[in-house]
Amino acid sequence: MTILISCGEPAGIGPEVAARAWMALQDEVTLAWIGDPRHLPRGTPVVQIDRPEDAARVRGALPVLARDLGPAVVPGQPQAPHAAGVVAAIRDGAALCMEGAARALVTAPISKKALADGAGFAFPGHTEYLAHLAGNVPVVMMLACDALRVVPVTIHVALSEVPRLLTRALLDQTIRLTAAGLTRDFGIRLPRIAVAGLNPHAGEGGRMGTEELELIAPLVAALRDEGFAIAGPLPADTMFHPAARARYDVAVCMYHDQALIPIKALDFAGGVNVTLGLPFVRTSPDHGTAFDIAGSGVADPSSMVAAIRMAAAMAAARHG
After folding, report:
1. What's the pLDDT tens digit per position in 73-124?
2. Helix (H, G, I), strand (E, B) or coil at 213
3. 3.40.50.10490, 3.40.718.10, 3.50.50.60, 3.40.630.30: which CATH number matches 1-140+275-320?
4. Is domain 147-266 in CATH 3.40.718.10, yes or no?
5. Tally of CB atoms within 10 A around 20
6. Is the pTM of the predicted complex or chain greater than 0.70?
7. What local confidence, expressed as pLDDT, does residue 156 receive?
8. Alpha-carbon span 45 to 62, nearest angstrom
9. Which residues are CB-neighbours of 113 under 8 A, at least 6 positions away?
């Protein structure tokens, strides 16, 4: 079954890393790219197809579900006329996955500002838009590499807002979605979950904050009583060394940087963004548009390769 790659921001490195990932994986995974073939790197062999299943019959060229996104690309300079086509590529990829025509969706990086300016895109990012397309289902963002999986409970918010937003309902939903996702999409029957504290030293018994005593610890205890394999709240500064990581399958963290700093320190090039909770598999490389190097031919495709491989493995776990 075909894995789709949506084009992402044409003026960024998305088309380049998609083409280079296809070159690396063409004998391993059946891929199709949704976008304007004129935006791929010069010399990329392409074959236009009508449906994702047609990709399986293509050899020696990148199968493309072609869209006309308008003007030629100027590397590093997003253009408003491209925005609607970029949004449509994401929407079409999600629809094809939900109707069963494709096995998974890998999304190339977007410029949220370019989409907002050019197409009125009102979502904070891919994750929220895909959840909307799927019927406003609850989702969580997971970052994963071979050495670590992390889930931030709060994501793109100011650090000063985290204590207010960190509720029992949100933390409970995040942990349940994470556990279900690891079982369904990673084949882990009883995921071992480590839950970080919010404050230094996990609050140190209330001396440096009470969120651990009043919120996190009671919920962890209740979930453990339900049968979850869960530990916490744990001091975040001692959760990510090798011996600690060996004791859990995923770390649930209270805010963005608490989760993303350790995974980017461990595997900056190979991290993958995964959306858990969707009715289809979605992954993305864990990097942005990189406008500063777009068009130079030096973009590292490692994260896109990892995202495609993880999407294939997740789809196999989900569908058999």
Report:
1. 999 999 999 999 999 999 999 999 999 999 999 999 999 999 999 999 999 8
2. helix
3. 3.40.718.10
4. yes
5. 20
6. yes
7. 85
8. 6
9. 78
Distance CA 149, CA 289 (A): 23
From the CB of residue 112, how many other CB atoms can be counted at a distance below 10 Å? 18
pLDDT digits (tens, 9 = 90+) for 162-172: 999 999 999 99
Q: Are 31 and 103 spatial neighbours (Cβ–Cβ below 8 Å)? A: no
Quick check: helix, strand or coil at residue 263? helix
Residue type at position 181: G
320 vs 185: CA distance, rounded Å: 10
Residue found under tokens 């994963």: 144
Q: Which residues of the chain have pLDDT under 50?
A: none
Tokens representing residue 182 in the block: 């690891």
Strand positions, DSSP E, 50-146: 62-66, 104-107, 140-144
